[in-house]
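Quick one, tokens below. Sequence please?
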């Protein structure tokens, strides 16, 4: 008997894996990518970020800084994504472009790297955090750099909020309103 050709050589398991891979590849194309991404929220007043990029960054912020624990306030009530948008407004165009591309990559990260049919902002909060944490320990230098950059920026904005300071035992800057009186 000669070698099997074409589809005859595929076992059911291999056929399923190949079909799933093709489905994911087709799903990640323009039409499928849009369907995976879903509708953007209605966000007004953004200066640099698209509504989709805003949603991705907001999903990341709420995963990194959930309410409760040592710091009862969470990122959900602070709109850190809007603060990021304000920060980007004063940056050179190439920085804006790179950071918005990084947000798009993060949004499709579960599809690209985990072969899931859900984008980052459509994952449950615990899944978002696990996915993002995998970027911090990835073999890919670029993924580690993106994770570090977003974590650092969101941390600076989160911990710079006066409502967070009492939870940290910080009374605020020594000069400012208190020092001027």
């Amino acid at each position: 008997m000669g070698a099997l050709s074409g589809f005859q050589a595929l076992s059911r398991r291999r056929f399923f894996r190949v079909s799933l891979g093709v489905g994911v590849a087709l799903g990640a194309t323009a039409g499928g990518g849009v369907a995976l991404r879903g509708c953007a929220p209605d966000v007004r007043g953004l200066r640099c970020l698209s509504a989709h990029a805003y949603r991705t960054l907001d999903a990341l912020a709420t995963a990194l800084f959930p309410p409760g624990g040592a710091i009862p306030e969470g990122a959900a009530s602070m709109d850190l994504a809007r603060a990021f948008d304000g920060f980007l407004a004063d940056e050179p165009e190439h920085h804006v472009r790179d950071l918005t591309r990084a947000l798009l990559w993060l949004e499709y990260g579960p599809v690209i790297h985990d072969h899931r049919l859900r984008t980052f902002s459509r994952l449950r909060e615990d899944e978002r955090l696990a996915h993002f944490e995998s970027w911090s320990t990835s073999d890919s230098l670029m993924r580690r750099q993106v994770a570090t950059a977003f974590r650092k920026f969101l941390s600076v904005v989160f911990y710079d909020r006066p409502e967070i300071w009492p939870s940290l035992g910080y009374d605020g800057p020594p000069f400012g309103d208190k020092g001027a009186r």
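Residues 35 and 127 are 20 Å apart (CA to CA). The radius of gyration is 21 Å.
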